[in-house]
């Protein structure tokens, strides 16, 4: 495969990834932004890509992911003490 063909293929895959991410984000409906960000992160999207998909800044996504992950840790710690 030529270098040009490889670049076109990589570009096409990137566009498909963006479309799939946008569809997934739209299907999550009214979920909290942190939960949406976490799910997209688990799918392998970078914070900047998630921000583009959700129409916000990457800093907002960083904060939302931090809060969501912190809440989950607190929930696990509380359930293990029982």
Mean pLDDT: 89
Number of domains: 1
What is the terminal separation in angstroms?
59 Å
Treating each run of at least 4 consecutive H or I residues as one helix, how many helices? 4
Question: Can you walk through the features of this model?
Answer:
With 82 residues, the chain is mainly α. The protein has one domain (3-80). The protein has 4 helices and no strands. The protein has helices spanning 3-27, 33-42, 47-54, 58-80. Helix 2 (33-42) packs across helix 3, helix 2 (33-42) crosses helix 4 (58-80) and helix 3 (47-54) crosses helix 4 (58-80). It is elongated. The protein starts with a helix and ends with a helix. The model has no long low-confidence stretch (mean pLDDT 89).
Topology of this structure?
Layout: H1 3-27, H2 33-42, H3 47-54, H4 58-80
Helix pairs in contact: 1-3, 2-3, 2-4, 3-4
């Amino acid at each position: 495969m030529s270098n040009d063909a490889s670049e076109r293929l990589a570009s096409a895959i990137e566009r498909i990834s963006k479309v799939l991410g946008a569809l997934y984000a739209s299907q999550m409906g009214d979920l909290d932004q942190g939960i949406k960000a976490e799910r997209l992160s688990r799918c392998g999207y970078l914070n900047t890509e998630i921000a583009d998909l959700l129409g916000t800044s990457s800093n907002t996504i960083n904060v939302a992911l931090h809060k969501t992950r912190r809440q989950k840790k607190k929930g696990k710690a509380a359930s293990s003490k029982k």
